[in-house]
């Protein structure tokens, strides 16, 4: 493992005093300090998600989060070391909005589809979660791991070989993230859509297939997502009928 330099130590907000562990999930939650108003992970997560929903990832800073909580920066840093900690907690809260059944049905492919459609709806309620910069560490929050356990066990019940499990998981994960990021960021007015189609119509000699298939004007996001998910599950050989055994 690469040693942490002095500058990296400082940029991580004093990580070493908690044992050098990067992920917030691998460190125990800390109780509030005596003499201060109670500040908990739950309050921090609620304020962070609200700030992200209202203003987006780029506007999230530890200072602004502390102000929203009515707390000092020192108090906030007692509970979360870095902005990455806050984002990890907020992302796990989004997964917590995805209903994960307590048990599988005998149709694992249906279980998979239902889980991913529910997660897509949660991400669309929090568009920042689909547009985050590349993460530097794995997701290890309890809500995410519950979601992942259900998804991967359903994939195995649907007949997927174990040596293809991680590839299939990431293909489905990326389908949700890509579809929601595109839907959240692409905002065309009717006039812009018509102008875009007119532009393509005028160049049908160069782009005949694109011009003929509503590339700009098709806004059936639900249908497109569902069809893409079916293509992926078909390609994986996920069974449609009851699970074996």
Give me the secondary-structure topology:
Layout: H1 6-11, H2 41-55, H3 62-69, H4 73-79, H5 83-95, H6 108-125, H7 142-157, H8 165-185, H9 190-201, H10 208-212, H11 221-236
Helix pairs in contact: 2-5, 3-4, 5-7, 6-7, 6-8, 7-8, 8-11
Question: Can you give a write-up of this model?
Answer:
The protein has 245 residues and is an all-alpha fold. It has two domains: 6-94, Arc Repressor Mutant, subunit A (Orthogonal Bundle), CATH 1.10.10; 100-236, Tetracycline Repressor, domain 2 (Orthogonal Bundle). Helices cover 56% and strands 0% of the residues. The chain contains eleven helices and no strands. The chain has helices at 6-11, 41-55, 62-69, 73-79, 83-95, 108-125, 142-157, 165-185, 190-201, 208-212, 221-236. The longest helix has 21 residues, at 165-185. It is flat, with a radius of gyration of 22 Å. The two termini are 43 Å apart. The model is unreliable at 1-19 (pLDDT under 50).
């Amino acid at each position: 493992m690469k040693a942490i330099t002095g500058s990296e130590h400082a940029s991580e907000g004093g990580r070493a005093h908690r044992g050098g562990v990067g992920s917030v999930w691998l460190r125990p939650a800390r109780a509030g300090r005596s003499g201060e108003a109670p500040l908990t992970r739950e309050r921090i997560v609620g304020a962070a998600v609200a700030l992200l929903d209202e203003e987006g990832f780029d506007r999230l800073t530890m200072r602004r989060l502390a102000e929203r909580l009515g707390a000092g920066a020192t108090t906030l840093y007692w509970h979360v070391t870095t902005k990455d900690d806050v984002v990890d907690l907020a992302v796990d809260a989004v997964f917590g909005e995805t209903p994960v059944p307590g048990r599988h049905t005998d149709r694992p492919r249906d279980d998979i589809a239902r889980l991913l459609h529910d997660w897509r709806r949660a991400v669309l309620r929090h568009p920042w979660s689909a547009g985050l910069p590349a993460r530097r560490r794995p997701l290890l929050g309890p809500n995410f791991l519950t979601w992942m356990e259900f998804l991967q066990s359903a994939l195995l019940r649907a007949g997927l070989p174990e040596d293809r499990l991680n590839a299939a998981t990431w293909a489905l994960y990326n389908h949700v993230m890509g579809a929601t990021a595109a839907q959240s960021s692409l905002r065309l007015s009717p006039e812009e859509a018509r102008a875009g189609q007119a532009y393509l119509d005028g160049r049908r000699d160069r782009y005949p297939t694109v011009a003929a298939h509503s590339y700009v004007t098709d806004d059936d996001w639900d249908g497109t997502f569902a069809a893409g998910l079916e293509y992926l599950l078909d390609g994986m050989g996920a069974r449609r009928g009851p699970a074996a055994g």
